[in-house]
Amino acid sequence: MLITEILERNARMYGNEIALIERDPEKGIRKTMTWKEFDDQANKFANALIEKGIQKGDKVIHLMMNCLEWLPAYFGILRTGAWAVPLNFRFSSEDILYCAKIAEAKAMIYGEQFTERVDAILDDLESIETYFFVGETTPSNAENFKAVLADGKAAPVKADLHYEDEAGLYFTSGTTGQPKPILLTHKNLESACITENRHHLQEHEDNFLLIPPLYHTGAKMHWFGNFIVGAPAVILKGIKPQWILEAVSEEKVTIVWLLVPWAQDILIAIENGDVSLDDYTLDQWRLMHIGAQPVPPALIKQWKKVFPNQDYDTDYGLSESTGPGCVHLGMGNEHKVGAIGIPGFDWETRVTDLDRKPVQQGQPGELMIKGPGVMKEYYKNPEATARTLFDGWLLTGDIAREDEDGFIWLVDRKKDVIITGGENIFPVEIEDFLHEHPAISDAAVIGIPDERLGEIVAAIVQLKAGKTLSEEAFFEFCEKLPRYKRPRKVFFDNVPRNPTGKIEKPKLRKQYAGMKESFKI
């Protein structure tokens, strides 16, 4: 079933039930939307796009912060047969222009937070003929989305859609150069619904807390597990531990997907007494899962001490695999915390050498995946597509190893491997070790140039609030590591992460080593 059809079915079966809840703790605002309202709004926006000449195969830029309007707009685009092109809310004007030109977009819907960025490039957005605006003060070039919903036609749109049709153009975050456009099909999107639901067993009574940015496949595709069974979700605008716990308690949330820093912040807030679990109703919270980045085992061990009755899962995925789920730890496998897990439902994995041949079990190699979520291509980039897709398999760019039980352990990103004195060092291993120090909140490891060894290991260490750690004490702690893996330099600073939680290592290399993005393998 196409995801546009799933929405239509949910409206028929659960029309008056709550589908989405938006919470803005900073403003004290709570808004809700039923499945019928969700479906109607998607139809109204689809009809408005069609009236503006949008047809099957056209591209519509979607540039909004998380809000109640985000998903109806997305589904409205899909219902016309056009491609939804969600953009990173951190993109600059130049990034937005670049993506719009690659997509040859014909329309754009954007939020009020992006007015200045869009205004700066209006004259250069030559292919875009129609603008819709989500906000109060509508620019002269755009139509107001709220007016579309007030006056629009909710009649169902019957576009001729098929599973193999293109549905979404997702641009990578751009942390390693210009964003790459990833083309996903309707079949890809449906597969994410099924995979996520099989992994976490969502039922109609579950409630999912949605915090990460919706433009990213991770957040939306985890929500898909609730969506496919008509279960509600809470869109939380804010990441403070108190706000997260309040949302879980007051909305009776059962499933929460967190990024590593947010889970760390919750544990620190509990440890420091900034929040008390006695103030919240959390018994119904059955699952916490994490993805989008390497997960320090020490973090999960501590989480399980604080929340012993919760299930835990690690999710591994890429935008190129339609988000999470191609590999996952699996609920009940906490004894393997640290691994990314086993192949997801309907997925296969291989760990291969540079010739794409399987390596011996236990040896590191590049992780390849195959399954229903593998992207169609990098749009307009056949060279990159040929380097990444091979006989139905996707090369992930991640170095991994498989243990004797078939669990896959992520070693590091291929491009992040540090070569020092001829030895390959995988930063994630050292970062996991550093997270075990009680004063360290976050850590990043990079290689910086060295005349004798080629590169040496440097650590950027972010301390917990109120904690201190001297260089001498840091290096003494690191003596537990093999000598060649020990950091030679340490910088005490904040660890920058992008909206999906990944460490922005190019920024750190530029700041601390004067290096541009390196490609060593």
Count of discrete alpha- or pi-helical segments spanning 4 or more residues: 15
Helix content: 25-40%
Distance between the termini: 41 Å
Uncertain residue ranges: 516-521
Task: Give the CA-based shape.
Answer: globular
In CATH, what is the class of one domain?
Answer: Alpha Beta
Category from helices, strands and their pairing: alpha/beta
Q: How are the strands of the largest sheet arranged?
A: 2-1-11-10-12-13-14-15-16
CATH architecture of one domain: 3-Layer(aba) Sandwich
DSSP strand count:
27
- The overall pLDDT, averaged over residues, is 91
Radius of gyration: 23 Å
Strand content: 25-35%
Largest sheet: 9 strands, mixed
CATH topology term of one domain: Rossmann fold
Topology:
Blueprint: H1 3-14, E1 18-24, E2 29-34, H2 35-51, E3 59-63, H3 70-79, E4 83-86, H4 93-103, E5 107-111, H5 115-119, E6 130-134, E7 143-144, H6 145-151, E8 166-171, E9 181-185, H7 186-200, E10 208-210, H8 217-227, E11 233-236, H9 241-250, E12 255-258, H10 260-272, E13 287-291, H11 297-306, E14 311-318, E15 323-328, E16 342-343, E17 348-352, E18 365-370, E19 377-378, H12 382-388, E20 389-390, E21 393-402, E22 408-413, E23 418-420, E24 423-425, H13 427-434, E25 440-450, E26 454-463, H14 471-477, E27 489-492, H15 505-513
Parallel strand pairs: 1-11, 3-4, 3-5, 5-6, 6-7, 10-11, 10-12, 12-13, 13-14, 26-27
Antiparallel strand pairs: 1-2, 8-9, 9-19, 14-15, 15-16, 17-18, 18-21, 20-21, 21-22, 23-24, 25-26
Helix pairs in contact: 1-2, 2-3, 2-6, 7-8, 10-11
